[in-house]
Fold each of these.
Amino acid sequence: MKGITSKELQQLLQTSTDFQLIDVREPDEHAAFNIGGQMIPLNEITANIGQIDKEKMVVFYCRKGIRSQFAIQKLEDKFPFDNLYNLIGGTESWKRTFEDI
């Protein structure tokens, strides 16, 4: 499974790279803290397959990176994706990396 670090994701955001960012957490988690992107809860991920870009880089995230890994695995097992990336360590890693900035 392909992964991306918080610093690499920040670079993508700062350079206006064309990619898709998907939060697979629940709405209350997203409302409390998020790093942007579209929210598609994990239990709705396959039902929303049409919203996931097949051409450009797609980065999934959650709190620790576990649910996003599961989402990617689920999608790659059922559909021909090769452009999915997991935010390593999720929002917890993001906060640790950037809390002092």
Note: The first strand starts at residue 2 and ends at 4.
Amino acid sequence: MWWPFVLEMGVAFFLLVFIVWWTMFHGRKPNPPAQGKPAPRKDDTEQ
């Protein structure tokens, strides 16, 4: 008698995990490599 509730809870848990995984990792692209030398940063402590 309890198996429909357990099955529904399992499906709901799977959907929750899938939605969290999808929103965290879907569409994330690696950073492009830097081309050339980056511009030197100015230090605020130098006058």
Note: The chain has a mean pLDDT of 81.
